[in-house]
Design goal:
The protein has helices at 16-30, 42-48, 54-62, 86-96, 120-123, 158-171, 186-202, 213-222, 234-245, 286-299, 303-318, 332-342, and strands at 5-12, 33-37, 65-70, 101-106, 128-133, 143-146, 149-152, 175-180, 207-212, 229-232, 255-259, 266-269. It has 343 residues and is of the alpha/beta class. The strands form 2 sheets. Strands 2-1-3-12-11-4-5-10-8-9 form a 10-stranded mixed beta sheet, sandwiched between helices. A two-stranded antiparallel ribbon has the order 6-7. Helix 1 (16-30) packs parallel to helix 12 (332-342), helix 10 runs antiparallel to helix 11 and helix 11 (303-318) crosses helix 12 (332-342).
Length: 343
């Protein structure tokens, strides 16, 4: 990699362009990063007729990293299975880059303990990582609708489960909790069997347990600090990570990284496109900043700069600045100015 990183920026829809502008200001301040905008999601449907144009995926494959803001909105909502949907762009780029591991850290900042719907004594000390399998399962299975009956196929191979399990065990500090629905689903029974084999043969010194997904959902609310790494399949991981987001007080605070093999990773905030506040200047850019930090750490090997960004966000929150989703009235521009000053 050259001294200058070349990344692809995907502003997308809704508040996406606003928070991407915030990230660009941050990257300019840090230096050593060049970017090029490309379309994805709803804006790509409008401009190209597809949620993931070939030129976007080709540019992403040639980049050092991909930074995405948000996709989707009511403009493109449709129950017609033949209509293109913004989310197809996100699923397509994950598949096209073979990004099979989604990492979503959940670590509430002490300054925001009061913003969580859970009591402080329940969330204090929480520092967990959801590792979600990203390219298999029901989201990518065959979909049919015939004669008033709809079908979605959920399938997993042993190799898909093995590779995501290894990511989880390598990421563990204390233990791995594998989440499934093995009392009902055959895919979950295979998941449990393969995850256990990977643990027993390759990572026997890592504490390991299984939880059914409904129990895991309850434990995330009752005792989130007991988790370290949560390993789970695509749909369960999607749901559980959004639930875990509320431990931090707002889904507007959570970043994510999607990683695969030797190619570029994709980094994006967990929240959606928030079309109801698009263009109002109220969007919280902190998850976008923290996603940029994950890009610096996991995509560009710039650990020191990643830590600087995270410390700056923590300092701004400790100073009392709050956006609307956190119960305050600070706008996007005010937060950006404060974080850059804290750097």
């Amino acid at each position: 990699m050259s001294d200058t990183a070349h990344i692809i920026t995907l502003p997308g829809d809704g508040i996406g362009p606003e928070i991407m502008d915030a990230a660009k200001r941050l990257m300019t301040e840090l230096g050593g990063i060049e970017w090029a905008d490309h379309d994805i999601g709803g804006v790509a449907i409008d401009n190209h007729g597809t949620a993931l144009p070939h030129e976007t995926l080709d540019a992403a494959k040639r980049s050092d990293a991909v930074l995405l803001a948000a996709v989707g909105g009511p403009k493109w909502d449709s129950t017609n299975p033949d209509d293109p949907r913004p989310e197809q762009g996100l699923l397509g780029i994950r598949k096209g880059l073979d990004l099979f591991a989604n990492l979503r850290p959940v670590k509430p900042v002490p300054a925001l303990y009061g913003s969580s719907p859970l009591r402080e004594d329940r969330i204090a000390g929480t520092d967990l990582l959801v590792i979600r399998e990203l390219t298999g399962g029901i989201y990518f299975g065959e979909k049919k609708r015939e004669n008033g009956v709809a079908t979605d196929i959920c399938s997993y191979s042993e190799s898909e489960i093995e590779r995501i399990a290894r990511v989880a065990f390598k990421s563990a500090r204390r233990k791995v909790t594998s989440v499934d629905k093995a009392n009902v689903l055959e895919t979950s029974r295979l998941w449990r069997e393969v995850a256990t084999r990977v643990h027993d043969t390759e990572f026997p010194d890592v504490a390991f347990e299984h939880l059914l997904v409904d129990n895991a959902a309850m434990q995330l609310v009752a005792a989130p600090s007991t988790f370290d790494v949560i390993l789970t399949e695509n749909m369960f991981g999607d749901i559980l990570s959004d639930e875990a987001a509320m431990i931090t007080g707002s889904i507007g605070m959570l970043p994510s990284a999607s990683l695969g093999g030797d190619g570029p990773g994709l980094f994006e905030p967990v929240h959606g496109s928030a079309p109801d506040i698009a263009g109002t200047g109220k969007a919280n850019p902190m998850a976008m900043f923290l996603s940029t930090a994950m890009m610096l750490r996991h995509g560009l090997n710039r650990e020191q700069d990643a830590a600087r960004v995270e410390s700056a966000v923590d300092a701004v929150l400790a100073g009392g600045l709050r956006t609307a989703d956190l119960g305050g009235d600070a706008g996007t521009a005010e937060v950006v100015d404060a974080v850059l000053a804290a750097l």
